[in-house]
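Z., the sequence and structure:
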Amino acid sequence: MNNKNKCRMDSDCRYKTLTNSRDGIWHKLIIITFALLIITSLSASVSAGANDIKITDFQLDGANTVSVTVSSSITLSVTGDPKNDGWQSTRYRIGGASGTWVCEDTPDHSSGSGSATESFTITAPATVGSYKVEVEVHKSNDCSSSGNDKDSMSRNNAIVTTACPDSDGDGHTDESCGGDDCNDGNDAVYTGADDSACDGVDNNCDGTPDDEYTVDSSCFLP
């Protein structure tokens, strides 16, 4: 009789086999448990490294980018998530490394939950060009936080300065400062624009509405 068949008939042998099998299962469970503990520990370490305060967005006059005349005032709105851990100061810089950081203390946002928004009045550069804008939010006042206690966001070409405004973005500046746009609030109106729509608007800024209307009869509005 071989050992395998003999073990089937021997109760002690069967018990030992069952015990060894159970020991093997417990051994595997212990290994799996330790592995899960290690993974959990690593995840906690990663979470601990996340910023305690976060900047979620900033807007310039309500938009991501803005085109203004040189030295104009701009409203900078900064939205941050202090995560109940405080937001007490903000600093910003226009023009990258050649610009100067400006720090402003804000109310303490260490209580409550969710995001908060602070607004600042900034001044556009005095020279025509395109400028990068950088913004930082700090947990402490005086913009002295470091590491996870601050967060930053930047945007290239966020401020475009012109000698004369082009508020409607049609590529033609306001005639009030030497441009050729007689209505800088309508991007279909500027010198040289098509004026044949019969809409009662002087699209080409020559003083006569619809003067390019080509129908033989006069252009009558309803």
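The beta strands are 54-60, 66-69, 73-81, 89-94, 102-105, 116-123, 129-138, 150-162. Residues 43-49 have pLDDT under 50 and may be disordered.

Let me know what you think.
H.
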